[in-house]
Amino acid sequence: MKAWPYPLWIAHRGAGKLAPENTLAAFRLGAHHGYRAFECDVKLSADGVPFLLHDATLQRTTPETGVASKRPWSELSRMDAGGWHSRSFAGEPLPSLDTIARYCIRNGFALNIEIKPTPGHNEETGRVVSQHTAALWADESLKPLLSSFQPDALAAARTAVPSLPRALLLDSLREGWLAEAQNLGCVAIVANCRVLDATVIAQAHAAGLRVASYTVNEPAEAHRLFDAGIDGLITDAVDRFSPGSTVQV
Fold first, then answer.
1. pLDDT at 245 over 60
2. Which domain holds residue 85?
3. What is the CATH number of the domain that holds 218?
4. How would you class 120 by CB atoms within 10 Å of its CB: exposed for 0-12, middle for 13-18, buried for 19 or more?
5. Domain presence at residue 132
6. Could you give the number of structural domains in the chain?
7. Which is it for the CA torsion 221, 5, 157, 23, positive or negative?
8. Mean pLDDT, to the nearest integer, of 193-210?
9. Whole-prediction pTM value?
10. Is 221 domain-assigned?
11. 223 is catalytic
12. Catalytic residue among 32, 33, 54, 132
């Protein structure tokens, strides 16, 4: 396998339970707890600006409603993405990928960008996110890991910028998952912790793929996966796990 440049512990959506997910405030809180690697979701505005948001719609994490990708960045950038979480985060904006890139690069943080297309925009989102990522991290040796549940988004990202590392996201181990990841030129899979064990991890490793897991919030699960040879643990529990080379609680 190629060298794995990312830390074992990765903060999910920043510190997406203790702070409003996918915001700069969440990244800062994760960093306060010692995390040096982060995961986030990126999609496109109506005018093609990559920005952070998990859902296709706005209503869960902003006061607005409707499909986020139908709004231009000039509107999205003014929305309150923090008040839903708690009053102390009211007014926290939706960040663009540019904003998160500046923060991570300045601090030397690693990033796993989940390409999160609005339905029907898989290839466009994969292409644009890949191109923006390549431009933003052009002078950096540590590139973000691009991941997605959508194979066509990963394929488009590969066509646009073949040199960026990619990972196939898997909620279940569907038939042919390993060949699919290999055919997409992935360096890793990122899978639901419930479907991973030592056998699956060894199978991926034998094929030259690294393995990360989401969302690992319980100590017993973290220890099980660490003992099984996992390469990355994505967690919401940034206040419970001490990031480092071993599993510490």
1. no
2. 9-235
3. 3.20.20.190
4. exposed
5. yes
6. 1
7. positive
8. 98
9. 0.97
10. yes
11. no
12. 54
